User: Fold this.
Amino acid sequence: MGRAVGYGDKMKPVRTCLGCRARADRSLLVRVVARDGEAVVDQSAILPGRGAWVHPTFECVNKSISRKAFGRALRVEGALDMGRLQRELTQ
Ligand SMILES: [Zn+2]
Assistant:
């Protein structure tokens, strides 16, 4: 009986919130991706491509929008339409 080689060692899947920059379990954050120049919520975290993570709160969403953090995190050149994302996450 040898010791199992532990890789990962119960590391939690932690992501950094774009709004408050705090690290949080990814189950507490929502994934955001860019599609056709628009930021959309990736509810099941399955959409391909680069994703950004944020707390689904008014404060964190608006903080990241005002810092234009989504465009940078998602490597979007030019304007990224945040309207729908903002409505969905801040209601
Ligand atoms: Zn946050």
Observations:
- The radius of gyration is 15 Å.
- The longest strand covers residues 30-35.
